Amino acid sequence: MMRTEVASAQQTLNRLSALATSLLALSRIDAQSAAQSARGSATVDELSTELADAADRGRLRVGSGDAQIDFAVDLAPSTRAVAISPHDFGRLCDNLVNNALAARPESGRIELALRARPGGRRY
Length: 123
Hints:
By secondary structure, the chain is α+β, with helices and mostly antiparallel strands. It is built from three helices and two strands. The longest helix is centred in the first third of the chain and has 34 residues.
């Protein structure tokens, strides 16, 4: 019984640690974006490539597990720039995938998507 409680506490600690690390990374990205808003920009094509790469990185983390990580891009290619660098977008996607993997049961599906918002705004 004690071993079960210790194992459960360890699992909870690992999840909380991963969440804190993700929040810290997102906070750093937000601070960098505020300080250097002109620095980062990307096109839909660049974001699409980074989204696919983030899905691949997540698949590597899962290994041969039962979780599936897919991605979808529901936008036409565009040269219009958005205010985020491909690197920062990739880090955001990685954090989302890591959080989803930590919160999921042993199997499941995680889908990353890049699509237009209702009302016509993109991303």
